[in-house]
Amino acid sequence: MLTQPGSNAPPKDMPGEPAVLALHEVTKTFPGVKALSEVSLSLYPGKVTALIGENGAGKSTVVKILTGIYQPNGGNILVDGKPTPFPVPQAAANNGVTAIHQETVLFDELSVAENIFLGHAPHNALGLIDLKTMTEKARALLESIGANIDPDHKLKDLGIANKHLVAIARALSIDARVVIMDEPTAALSHKEIEELYDLVESLKAQGKAILFISHKFDEIFRIADNYTVFRDGQLIGDGAIADVSEADLVKMMVGRDVSQIFPERTPNVGDAVLSVQGYAHPTEFDDISFTLRKGEILGFYGLVGAGRSEFMQSLFGITRPSAGAVEIDGTPVEIKSPADAVNNGIVYVPEDRGKQGAVLDLPIFQNITLPSLGRISNNGFLRLAEEFKLAREYAERLDLRAASLDTHVGNLSGGNQQKVVIAKWLATHPKVIILDEPTKGVDIGSKAAVHDFMAELAAQGLAIVMVSSEIPEVLGMSDRVIVMREGRIVAELADHELEPETLVRHAAGI
Amino acid sequence: MLKRLITSREALLIGAIVLLLVLISTRFPGFVRPANLANVFNDTSPLILLAIGQMIVILTKCIDLSVAANLALTGMVVSMVNVAAPGLPMAVILAVAIGLGALLGMFNGILVWKLQIPPIVVTLGTMTIFRGTIFLLSDGKWVNSHEMSPAFKALPRTDFLSLPVLSWMAIIAVILFTIVMTRTTLGRAFYAAGGNPHAATYAGINVGKTQFWAFTISGALAGLTGYLWVSRFAVAYVDIAGGFELDVVAACVIGGVSIMGGIGTVAGALLGALFLGIIKNALPVVDISPFWQLAISGGAIIIAVALNAQANREKGRIILKRAEHAT
Fold first, then answer.
1. CATH number of A234's domain
2. Is A499 in the B-facing interface, judged by CB distances under 8 Å?
3. pLDDT at residue B81, as a whole number
4. A332 vs A178, A274, A290, A384, CA distance in Å?
5. Best CA proximity match to B178, nearest among B248, B252, B267, B262
6. Which positions 404-433 of A are in contact with B (Cβ < 8 Å)?
7. Interchain pair A380, B319: CB under 8 A
8. Are residues A445 and A490 in the same domain?
């Protein structure tokens, strides 16, 4: 049942009708990264196929290829068994492929009916949009999927669940044969999820082929007929869901050897540096408490949307918590702004360094010293010689490769930009450093360098919080792991308890 | 240091200005005599002062359309103060002009910072409010030359080291703000807040407050220019410097200030203002019709924007590559 990567012909043992849409040995590469490697995937009319994989397994890339946003570098898209390229998104739509995204891509300011029929609205004799027919058709479509929505309402007045229903109605209005649902339940309540399941059943009954992307095993077993598991851009296994157990799927998702590629370290854990008690936020997270010690690397694992980054931003003073207390070295501190956090020795290296990390139009040295300006100035006047010295010291410490410290950060490679951001924070002499997805989008060589450097910092006594969605990284780097799910801590695992299956079980709630 | 002050874009602009002067001198050699060039500089000084303030505002991803109205209101107020109390020392008049201008700028800044209203809307609103206030204060009447005290009118024209005080004000502002922008934490905050507001926030910079200070500086310079303007032309009325805010924004854009924020220098604003100033002064003397003057100014703006867009597009391509990389 487990197919080996590389030998993945399209599954032959699938029962019933031929695939309406399939990928055949599709490869997609980005500069320096192979996102998909000869993967195959088949969708059958009236069947729900679950696409399962860790973050970064290549699920999103598949969705983008199936909807014509990305072009594969090798392999074919097969529509009814015939190779059919999707050079533009419109081509995918013309072949009856439609996707309902995690965040709905609809127009808030337009009416429900306009959203459903945008681009293919019915016209009257004068060539103008026939509003009445459009509204009636929209009403009929919405009723057919059991949605009680007024087609004249503006989309922005609807809740997220009803927006999904509008997206589904839109999919039906263009006579979709294949519906791709990318984590459709991520933002829904329990009741809304039940309604979505009913809808998926009715789409199945209408003979639509459904690709269902989800992290949640309970819903996969509830509604999927077939499964396909990806790992690191490769097809690991596929088949009928009735033939597998949860444990089998988890094993396929994460099973790999992770021990060699991470630096060997003997944790030398000292006194508590940071203690967080009962941090809460009205909508994002609740009751977050933990202690972090000197020289320790504490991993935060969870699925995307588990509230990890939101909590970290609150701890760093970007957003205000509704409750909670922080102690640094046993002294209570109040963090009302990022400046307070930096002054108390907490720094945050955000996930998206382009957006949140570096000022691309400023030179390297000005980026490195940006949070430390208070220390290198007198009454607001910068001591430029000292600024250069500080920047050079940390650029050298991180082995930053650039022609000169005057180079604008926008001209550096991804790995070097990451180094600038880390150098910037180290230059503030922090006690606690929060690294949010430290190696996301970084090439393999730089990844190892970042990991080595983290180990070195921990050895020097810095306390590190590492938010990561990559299981190997969490397992390979952390001394201890906190698992978050739906805004709460659900498990705290010591080094010897760390198993990939355990992490996934806690994170997915199974 | 010199290399950092004059980046390639500024060198390009200096080249363009030299070329322009050469072209003009072929038709009217007298234009490039030092004395005439000093006159052109003096004439462009108000534009330079305002362009420096505007450059800082644009740097923080904002825009200040109220500068010309601020100038007119402050000019009217100091004229009326002068009429009411002719004996007041000029230092007080200058302090009132700068202080009132700064206050009007702070009003813009507060609305942008605390109420988070888009700057273009805020300053479009205050532009109208300021003009309306002048009308209310003056009843639509002019303050004329004979009502102003001799000292009030004389200051901008007073020669010091063979340049008028008006020119010296621009020179001092260029030097002062070059120092502010390159050597102070506030200057660095302007660049960071506009270049990447997220990163600036994470680095502990209060972006809204930084924008507030940018508007305050722009307002203070507009206030100072308000006094210089009414005293130089010896008249104050509702519509002085009407539409001048567009020249100010144009000077910034020509000077390489990115309308997206984060890129710009005092030297750029100075050169952009000089470029426009030379065109405005030279075209009449070389006998080109007013229509062509406007067309040439407009053409210069579009070329400058096109050059900026070109530079930005290249940057976009790199970002996209990285975004794909991260997938």
1. 3.40.50.300
2. no
3. 95
4. 56, 10, 15, 35
5. B267
6. 406, 410-411, 414, 424
7. no
8. yes
Chain A nearest-CA distance from B206, in A, is 9
pLDDT in tens, A16-56: 568 899 999 999 887 666 788 899 999 999 999 999 887 66
Q: Are A98 and A171 in contact (CB under 8 A)?
A: yes
For chain A, the domain total comes to 4
The phi and psi torsions of B234 (rounded to 5 degrees) equal 55, 40
For B43-59, the pLDDT digits (tens) are 999 999 999 999 999 99
- In this structure, the number of other CB atoms found within 10 A of the CB of residue B313 comes to 9
Q: How many residues does chain B have?
A: 327
Structure tokens at A500: 């990939």
Residue A487 belongs to what domain range? 271-345+431-510
Q: Which string of DSSP letters, residue by residue, matches A468-484? A: ---HHHHHHH-SEEEEE
| Nearest by CB: A414 against B196, B204, B325 | B325
Domain boundary among A154, A174, A194: A174
- Residues A277, A393, single domain; the answer is no
Q: How far apart are the C-alpha atoms of A43 and A270, rounded to whole Å?
A: 54
Q: Indicate the residue of B186, B196, B204 with minimum beta-carbon distance to A380.
A: B186
- Within 8 A of A406 by CB-CB distance, chain B residues are 4
Shared domain check, A373 and A308: no
Q: Choose, out of A359, A365, A437, the residue to mutate when testing the contact with B (most B CBs < 10 Å).
A: A359
- Copy the structure tokens of residue B193: 């807040």
A92 and A110 assigned to the same domain: no
Alpha-carbon span A31 to B317, nearest angstrom? 13
Which tokens in the block code for residue A67? 């909807």
Q: Which chain A residues are Cβ-neighbours of B205 within 8 angstroms?
A: 339, 370
* Per-residue pLDDT reduced to its tens digit, A144-168: 877 888 999 888 888 777 888 888 8
pLDDT tens digit sequence for B130-142: 999 999 999 989 9
Contacts of A489 (CB under 8 A, 6+ apart): A287, A288, A289, A290, A482, A483
Q: Are residues A367 and A389 in the same domain?
A: yes
Q: Which helix (H) or strand (E) holds A83?
A: strand A82-83
A149 Cβ contact partners less than 8 Å away, ≥ 6 residues apart: A112, A142, A158, A162, A165, A166
- Please tell me whether residue A229 adopts helix, strand or coil conformation: strand
Parallel/antiparallel/unpaired status of strands A331-333 and A323-328: antiparallel
Q: Which residue from A502, A494, A496 is spatially nearest to A290, judged by alpha carbons?
A: A494
Taking chain B, what is the end-to-end CA distance rounded to the nearest angstrom?
A: 40
Looking at the structure, do residues A88 and A191 belong to the same domain, yes or no? Answer: yes
* Same domain? A147 vs A244: no
Q: Which of A39, A41, A43 is nearest to A74 (CA)?
A: A39
Final residue belonging to a domain, choices A429, A446, A470: A429
Residue A264 lies in a domain: no
Same-domain status, A160 and A296 = no
- ipTM for the predicted complex: 0.78
Dihedral class, residue A56 (left if φ above 0, else alpha if ψ from -120 to 50, else beta)? left
- Decide if A401 is inside a domain: yes
Of residues B16, B324, B253, B236, the one with CA closest to residue A28: B324
Is the dihedral angle over the CA atoms A371, A372, A375, A379 positive or is it negative? Answer: negative
Going B84 to B90 to B92 to B96, the CA torsion angle's sign is positive
> Does a structural domain hold residue A351?
no
What is the pTM (predicted TM-score) of this model? 0.74
- Neighboring chain B residues of A61 at a CB cutoff of 8 Å: 327
The DSSP code sequence of B179-225 is HHHHHBHHHHHHHHHHH-HHHHHHTT--HHHHHHHHHHHHHHHHHHH
Q: Which residue in chain B is spatially nearest to A335 when comparing CA positions?
A: B204
